[in-house]
UniProtKB/TrEMBL annotation:
<feature type="active site" description="Nucleophile">
    <location>
        <position position="431"/>
    </location>
</feature>
<feature type="domain" description="LysM">
    <location>
        <begin position="201"/>
        <end position="245"/>
    </location>
</feature>
<dbReference type="GO" id="GO:0009252">
    <property type="term" value="P:peptidoglycan biosynthetic process"/>
</dbReference>
<dbReference type="GO" id="GO:0016740">
    <property type="term" value="F:transferase activity"/>
</dbReference>
<dbReference type="InterPro" id="IPR018392">
    <property type="entry name" value="LysM"/>
</dbReference>
<comment type="pathway">
    <text>Cell wall biogenesis; peptidoglycan biosynthesis.</text>
</comment>
<dbReference type="GO" id="GO:0008360">
    <property type="term" value="P:regulation of cell shape"/>
</dbReference>
<feature type="active site" description="Proton donor/acceptor">
    <location>
        <position position="406"/>
    </location>
</feature>
<keyword id="KW-0573">Peptidoglycan synthesis</keyword>
<dbReference type="GO" id="GO:0071555">
    <property type="term" value="P:cell wall organization"/>
</dbReference>
<keyword id="KW-0808">Transferase</keyword>
<protein>
    <submittedName>
        <fullName>LysM peptidoglycan-binding domain-containing protein</fullName>
    </submittedName>
</protein>
<feature type="domain" description="LysM">
    <location>
        <begin position="136"/>
        <end position="181"/>
    </location>
</feature>
<feature type="domain" description="LysM">
    <location>
        <begin position="57"/>
        <end position="101"/>
    </location>
</feature>
<dbReference type="GO" id="GO:0008932">
    <property type="term" value="F:lytic endotransglycosylase activity"/>
</dbReference>
<feature type="domain" description="L,D-TPase catalytic">
    <location>
        <begin position="332"/>
        <end position="455"/>
    </location>
</feature>
<keyword id="KW-0961">Cell wall biogenesis/degradation</keyword>
Amino acid sequence: MERTRMNLFQNSFLLHPGRSGRPLLRPLVIFLLVGLLGVGTARQASAQPSPPTPEATIHVVQAGDTLSQIAANYGIPLDRLMALNGLDDPDAIYVGQKLRLTPSLAADMAIPPPMAEAPVGPGEEASRPPIATLNRTYQVQAGDTLHTIALRAGVDEAALARLNDLPLDNPGLAIGQILLLPATPADLREAREAGSRQAAAVYVVQAGDTLGGIAQAHGLSLADLLAANRIAAPDAIYVGQQLTIPPRPEPEAPPPAPLRLGPARNGFFYYTVRPGDTLSGLARDFDSTVLAVLEYNDLPDAETVYTGLELRIPFGPPPLPLRLPPVPLSGTRFLVSLSRQQCWLLRGEAVAYSWPCSTGYGAWITRTGTFQVQTKLEMAQSNAYQLDMPYWLGIYDVGSYENGIHGLPVSWETGEKIWEGLIGQPATFGCAMLTDEDAAILFQNAYLGMPVHIVP
């Protein structure tokens, strides 16, 4: 610009070299015009928008804002915006909240940018840190298949394949491979009970609540709830009050069972009937069943009992239908007596558990003999009778069906358990039935191939 002004000045002066006073006038006018043009140019330049200010570091939440919209407006990934502000729930923001948009130095160090995963070639397994899990695991042995592992563990084969990301038709198991086992109802029940005992909870009093009702709903005594909240008068609670719900007291451990030496004893109790005795009461007192007392005393019915009658009441497991060498018996086995409607879980020659049970009724009488567990399922389904049967242990086939041992059946039509009051008498279509609690214990101790003895 300066160079242009000088050229104009020189040219205007040389046009009139002989005029006095005039040579300076035109250059001066031209110089002023050029100066005004320069000022206009400068003003025009100053009118252009100023360079952008540094990026905002804080956003104040306004009515109608959403976290995803805020992240999009500032060009920030949603997960990074949540990490910068310590948010776990994208909906947990409120009007007036100040959100950090740029991390501090400490935050930069604490929140590294996500790293792209390297592609995994065919046949290669990605190197990932081990997954923390409470699921049980199983190590594949020689000869294992997905089907046999599912049967042995008592889990669903399809669920086992999905959990371990294996194709169901050709899983390609390798010896030593570790498989995660799907959780069973027993696993979930234990975890839920353990979690409920970890810490005290808080309950907010609602309209119509009473302290006694709140205590009963949480399985507590009124005294425990009063003590936990330092309340002297049970009626002095109000709507909105926060009450501390203490953990339930741990149940006392049962006393240890007496040490049993040698094989289990069996035989008969001899009892003379007294006034007021009933057959059901005697069966309960002697840990037997009404059917056993009837069978072993040739009684036609439970009413044929009179004062002075001598009864023979069996106790202990009957002898096993086996010819064995004279050496100690080992291993776990299950014994069912049809005439006594009782069963026993034996470990060696000792009785681990003794339970009442129900076997086949009428034309569906349970087959006698020695069998072995051939199927183990957490829940079996009977299409023939439209029933779910928990803790299923299949032991022998009847045509295209399988008979076994199970807990209380559940009707498909009503969704309710049936035959609950029939334990201790013949009631089933050929299976051996226990209560759910006893069937669960047996299921946990059973294994594929476990001997099952059914005697008359």
